[in-house]
Structures are given as structure tokens and as C-alpha cells.
Amino acid sequence: xxxxxxxxxxxxxxxxxxxxxxxxxxxxxxxxxxxxxxxxxxxxxxxxxxxxxxxxxxxxxxxxxxxxxxxxxxxxxxxxxxxxxxxxxxxxxxxxxxxxxxxxxxxxxxxxxxxxxxxxxxxxxxxxxxxxxxxxxxxxxxxxxxxxxxxxxxxxxxxxxxxxxxxxxxxxxxxxxxxxxxxxxxxxxxxxxxxxxxxxxxxxxxxxxxxxxxxxxxxxxxxxxxxxxxxxxxxxxxxxxxxxx
Length: 245
Prior knowledge:
Helix content: 55-70%
Radius of gyration: 25 Å
Structural class: mainly alpha
Distance between the termini: 43 Å
Shape: elongated
Number of strands: 4
């Protein structure tokens, strides 16, 4: 599509097409064989490849050697921005990383967590005119799909923190929707707060994000309420996937 007009394609393959994952494997089989011949430990998926060596010096040496092999044998150029010699815990592979302490554990890379947060944040900003149930309905496929992809993670703390963060984001959405102190007071009363606490909380003058994490909003909208409303729990989904494997 060029300037809104469809034009024939004479080179390259469409992103997401069935040929896209196949062609890199055909082309890079020579790289696999070369690394096996050198008895190097490596992991490759399509054009993303990690090679494991014993030291920084060895890493620098093999980086230059592999770049030379790719350029001379396969006519490929390594992306210098995305490539580096570093400890495995400092790098990510397919959205995952590993812990720096022994024994090493698989964990979700920080950029992957940030991307999920951005998706949730965007959806909540778009949901100011929707009910909480409608927002949860749109949010659930995102959370479920993300946790399914990262089901191999061995670190529970980040997903516990994400569960709490998602609930806080939803409380923040509600606080914004309620707008006026009187509305906030009546809503918190409806959720079971006593009259004095509901009134004081409604006029505290703090911002939406602060209130979303404050004790009065957690008391009014506890985790079990979100479970009753059908919100997908990342922790519960991860536990289910772990039992299924």
C-alpha cells in the first residue's frame, strides 16, 4: 500500500506471512552448522540468535568472527544497534531474559513488561466512557494472551506486581470517571466504606493515581471484587499453565 494505493510487490515478503519464518531458517542453516562445527552453545529463532561463550574477551572475538562469516558467506549485515557482547542476564531473547544469580532462572525481560503496561494504560485511557465490566472484557484477552506467551517464566514476583498494577490502573480509571467529590463519596459508600471515611477520602485533594493505590480505594475495590468481575489474574493463569505442562 503506497499513499493509499495498492501496488504489486516485486521483492521481499509480507510481514507476518507464512514465508517470513521459513526463509530465515533456510538461509541461516549455514550459520547453525558453522556454530555447531565450532562447538559453540547457541540459541536461534528466525534471525534472532544468542551465542554463549565463557568470557567477554571470547565474546568479542567470536562476535567479529561471526559478523565476518555472515558478511562473506551469506552476504548479511549484523544489526550493530541490537547486537552486543554482554552477560545473558543483561540481554533479552524473544521477550525473555535470565536472572544473574545461580542457579539461573528464566524471567520476563523488562521491556516486555513495559510493553504490556503501555497496552493496559492505553486501553484504560480509551475506557473512560465505558463501564468497568466492559473495560475488563476488553482487557482480559490481552492479559491472557500475554501470560500464555510468557508461561515459561520462573520468577513469580513480577507477575504478582503486574496483577496489583493492573488493579490499581482500573481503580484509577474509576476515580477519574467519578470526577466530583460528591460522586466519589457516594460510590465509595456503595462499595462499603463508612460515611466518615468515604467523605474524607473524596475531598483529600490528591490525584487519581495516588488515590488508586490508597487504602480507601483498596478497601472499596479489593482484589476479590475484580476476581468476581471476571478480571484475568496473571498469577492464577501462570499457575494453571504450570500445572498443565
